[in-house]
Amino acid sequence: MNKKILVAALATFMIGFSSCEDSFMETKSTQTVDQSQMFETTAGGMMAVNGLHKLMYTPSLSSSYAQGGFQTFMIWMDMMGEDLVYTRANAQFQSSAKWTLHRNVSSSHLEYHYKLFYRFITNANMIILNIDNATGTQEERDYIKGQALAYRAFAYFNLVQCWAERYKAGESNEQLGVILRTDNSTNNLPRSSVELVYAQINEDLDNSISLLSQVKTLKKENKSHIDVHVARGLKARVLLTQGKWLEAAEMAKQVVDNSGAKLQDDTYTTFANRMSDQTNTEWLWGKKGQEDQAGTLKDFHSFMSNKNVSYNKNTPRAIYNLLYNKISDTDVRKTLWFPKAQDPKAPVKPVIPTGGYIRNYMANKFLLADENAKCGDVPWMRLPEMMLIEAEGYARAGKSTEAANALYPLAHHRDPEYKLSTKTGEELIEEVMFQRRIELWGEGFRFLDLKRLNMPLDRGPKTRTELGYSDDPWSSNTKMPTNVDPEASNFNMYDAHPMGEDCRYREAGHKEWQWVFPKDECDVNPECKQNPL
Length: 533
Fold this sequence. Notes:
globular, 18 helices, mainly alpha
């Protein structure tokens, strides 16, 4: 990481943080507090931790849209997969979906998100290196340091997954990772190996779990804070990505069994802030959306919900039709998408913002009760993800009975007709992954799943015009398309075919699965070797 980026990251430490009630959790503005003063007490240290929470959703100060903290990075991760379908030509996220933005060294969006994760790291480093001597109780110091360690691991985990080649289980993983820094010195450093980066991630998470497990009396103010269950959830994600199947399953099982989170009956049936309210008992970690947190077209709901001021209004997000068609009719999740939205006679219609476009297979997963609201809560981690990690880990480890038992509570809760699976091997793995795709749709996982599993991006077959099927664009709010190829995917079917056929497929392992480093990083830091262009 070069000095210019490091200085910019350090500067974000001196920002105002959201407020809480008691003295330890007090998080008033730190614009006039220097670093030495901040870490005199654990109350000051907690200000710094709240700064890390705020980075998850703080929009950039530039005029660029789609730069709203981690919440906009989540959207990239699904736009670059096949399950979230782009329906109309539009400025925001179209180049992400077309796999060009992450390969543009001069992109402001690429640079913003790269710097964002190093802001997490530099701020976490300051906390980790200073909090041990702060005046306060040991439990308070553990709570602060444990969260900072989790955030540092979280940042490096996202960096290494995107800016490096995938982790290859059972191999040495000497391929170049990202620049690894556990202090805030400003000398230029080369990229560490993928193996070393993951070693640091795991060390940080192990230490975080150890510290947070000692926290008994302090309670999270809200779900934006990290506790031991969230730290274990992050560890489960990492182990899954490393192909440590049994360890991932058992770590996730600890969260499922001990976190207190429960499946909620109206998760998908409510129309009042559906998937946008952190009081849901399934949520383990998430953004608490306040009206003053929203940047104009920089928050999650500006691109994924039914807001009136929303790119989703102009470019409805849709589900991959060939995935949707596999969902059981008795599965409540099937009601989130509308395959006949354009049909004026359809008995059930989607919730759309005033004047919004309507497109078949469009989504209503993330709803806000008030279409003019600035923002809503955003999930970073939910119980269903942990249940799915447990099931996937056991299935890939060859423990079919354990996998089926882990999957059943979630699948049956969503679909009362679902029966305990008797499948084994690849068939069981495929069943788990299908459940993962429909449960976590739009929550920022699909690109990373494809990459960790070394799978190609395959957005499905195009229309077979040679058989007489129509390739006319789906471009009406009030008319259903006709003569549609039943075997074709809905990728690139909408409007003037804005995505282009060259974006339909990317082979596994191609250089384009690696994000490029911002030009500024490589220009100023000659130690940083650029990924293949």
